[in-house]
Amino acid sequence: MHVAFRAFLLASALSVASAASAAPLAIAPILTTPEAKDVRSFARPQVARVTHVDLDLTADFDAKIMRGSAAMDVLAAPGASEIVLDTLGLDITKVTDGAGRELPWVLGNEDKELGAPLTVQLKGAKRIVVEYASKPGARSLQWLPPSLTAGKQKPYLFSQGQAINNRSWIPTQDSPGIRQTWTARIVVPDGLTAVMSGEKLTPKGEPTTDGKRAFRFRMDHPVPPYLIAIGVGDLAFRELGPRTGVYTEPSMMDRAASELVDTEKMVKAAEGLYGPYRWGRYDLLVLPPSFPLGGMENPTLTFLTPTFITGDGANVSLVAHELAHSWSGNLVTNATWPDGWLNEGFTTYFENRIMEALYGAPRARIEADLSWDGMQADIKEEGGPQADATKLYGQPGGQLEYFKGATFLRTIETIVGRERWDAYLRSYFDRHAFQPQTTAGFLADIRANLIKGDKGLEAKLELDKWAYAAGLPSNAVHIKSEALARVDEQTAAFVKGGPASAIKASAWTTQEWLRFLNNLPRQLSTAQLDDLDRTFKLSDSTNSYVRSAWLELAIANRYEPALPSLEAFLKSVGRGLFIRPLYAGLMRQGDWGQPIARKMLAEAKSSYHPTIVAGLERIVNGS
Description:
By secondary structure, this protein is of the alpha+beta class.
């Protein structure tokens, strides 16, 4: 019996009607096979699980806390006496059933990474209500003062839930395999707007008796808890198309909307590849520079870093990536984080297909070729092709799950043919819509619905090697770009002593610049670095991708003329992709770089997201 079907039977046998909605809502299955057990959650979903969450919270900007309640519908096995939730640093004040009767509860020992289990005695309750407050410094939340926003007048709040951060502001079963529907009522100071990753029931908010505004939201599709997201600030909105639009601060709107002009076309292109977009609207929230990621695929409302805005649309592949997650990640979700490549590898492949559909094969080849470069660099950094850290399954986090996962799918496409592969992928998303998935489940599905007993095809695909072995199988497909090959020729000429003025870079895209800068030797002469910076003004670049790559090169060469640019960059950008390599590079430079890294982190960390600060402190402190 198929894993997902067996899990559905379990969910159906335990099924109860939702007490939180006028109409019954679908309850997503859970997976019950051993590899689907989530060791990063305290929950025991086969005993009792959360199926729906109603949030009623007030954003207290002065105290930097979220305060209120989370009411949860519980689906319990016959005879189950308790439910276990995930929490991280929450102040729990009371737990009741749906009728207001207090329920016994206990908060277990706190683990620094996982938090603490909240165990509630059910006493027959099918609905529990937890009254609580988050703490200042909650791992998911960043509270920005006005000085760190574009407008400089009003504060800002945003969340980042992936992977297990949302338990720091929502007490629920914080596991990607335990999908839940939800609603929210969010109270914020008057003059601010709240947005969330769900249907907006009150776009302009409702006045409250204490002079604030309440915003209401709803998500009727069951989603993994890490995709519950919030943003609060001085936000404007502009339509981009019939079902797309952008939120951002008013002073950023023109630049953001101009860069996102093709968003509606992207949605149509994605649907043409792998089936209907099932989430209603696709809006985007362009955040302040401290946002720690490039983007986050929160349903109905992708969160984006402003660093993707370069004025030429060169980095809209980021938008294509987050949109693709509406299928791979949000629609079909990894059951546990060691299966994370099912999200990021699928999405990186899908992103490239969207880019090809909109902007042509040469652009797609450039980006696929750069992904290959990134994969090779990551394999080397992880210890070489024999290192366990280069496996797809079992290595949560890191870029390899993006690049190696995409290469895996691209290899399958090459072997079976694009038409057949696309038909399979579309049916795969249909079969597993709004459900969790494991690596073993995907391999079983592809064998049942694509290979269908063809032993020759099975041998050619090498599925188990791709999923479970280190390094790259021998059939890995490398897409090569003619445009990047021409960049390589100019790189070689410069390295041999040619002048920077001979480099024909006036029409280069961001991707071509990255190929050039990343492929330069890490040891160049001061004269060569001077020549590059003088010719192309790299230290003054407003393109964060180009500038960060240039600063990595400068750090490797202890190039002190670039230090003012480095300091300004580290104090103005919080995206981990850009700043982590810079701090790591400084630390590798011993007595020269380490004092700079420590000084910069001390001065800049108040503008970084808590998760970024934690990672940078590990880099700088050597832990």
